[in-house]
Amino acid sequence: xxxxxxxxxxxxxxxxxxxxxxxxxxxxxxxxxxxxxxxxxxxxxxxxxxxxxxxxxxxxxxxxxxxxxxxxxxxxxxxxxxxxxxxxxxxxxxxxxxxxxxxxxxxxxxxxxxxxxxxxxxxxxxxxxxxxxxxxxxxxxxxxxxxxxxxxxxxxxxxxxxxxxxxxxxxxxxxxxxxxxxxxxxxxxxxxxxxxxxxxxxxxxxxxxxxxxxxxxxxxxxxxxxxxxxxxxxxxxxxxxxxxxxxxxxxxxxxxxxxxxxxxxxxxxxxxxxxxxxxxxxxxxxxxxxxxxxxxxxxxxxxxxxxxxxxxxxxxxxxxxxxxxxxxxxxxxxxxxxxxxxxxxxxxxxxxxxxxxxxxxxxxxxxxxxxxxxxxxxxxxxxxxxxxxxxxxxxxxxxxxxxxxxxxxxxxxxxxxxxxxxxxxxxxxxxxxxxxxxx
Length: 439
Fold this sequence. Notes:
By secondary structure, the chain is mainly α. It has a domain at 221-319: Alpha Horseshoe (Leucine-rich Repeat Variant). 71% of the residues lie in helices and 0% in strands. The protein is built from 23 helices and no strands. Helix 6 packs parallel to helix 8. 37% of the residues are buried. Residues 1-20 and 435-439 have low confidence and may be disordered.
């Protein structure tokens, strides 16, 4: 009997529990609904206050930064300008409209350029759309500035890509090439087809040249596109178009046809064309097929700069023959004057500049043996750089320590140690040295 009554008692207990009474639940729901609008309103108020505070801080920061940027030419490699732009990047993600308006309002070329760089680094889709909205409002200068800024963004968004395509379909020749390159860099699906159309049908030489560049960036159909571009690399073509075609081949590694054209160009008399071919070969030269052509250029009577470039390209291909050929006169003089540390150092620097680091070490070490104490320490640093380039980090570290450096933080900006300082064993020695405050 007790067992039969137990479920009934439990049911009655649950039924009369205050928390489960319908009237109380309804009342709590009404109270919650009354509180929600108040909570949302409070959140809006707080958010608005924060935005207002940010706006005040943004205007202050802009007023402090703009006068300095206005004085620095955009084409100058200025660390100060780069630092100021970096400070503004986070603000550009929030106040992109203000930055776009500033570009439209100000007329100074350099300030416009700096602000456009800030927006490009911010990589904001809304900023990209805003920049493209300025195209056609003033003239070529502003159009190109805005289009190129969008082209430097990693992901300007689908709206900006669609806008680039729209501009490309109706653009004047002066801006068409820049639009195609921006479309290619930002991954527009139509960029390849638009570029091919301009390459084959446009009357504008600059537009066709830039369309060739854009087409190579898309990497849409490498085999067919190389064949198309090769038609515009021949001697019968305009030089501007040939230069673009030769440089475009640098984006097609492993293609024998494009490499053959580059090799043939190395024997031409025009230094600009040879330089363009070297631009491409720096990326696509082959151990199997390129060495002979590059060494022939090194031994020719071409401009020294071109010959040195060819020698540097040969080094990663496993050949220091070009470097040795160019340094031979300095080497011969050093060999004849072994007690002259300047002669040894001159030969060593010649090898070092051309990437022949083993040869450089030989002559740096000769210089160490005959140099005075002060010069000796400096020479050991050069030996350390050479060994770091060769990947011999243990011996590079020993040279630096022999030169009197227990910590290597002074060499953090040296490209020679870029790989070494990332190695777990050596990274602590390159860490910024912290000095304790004196009491």
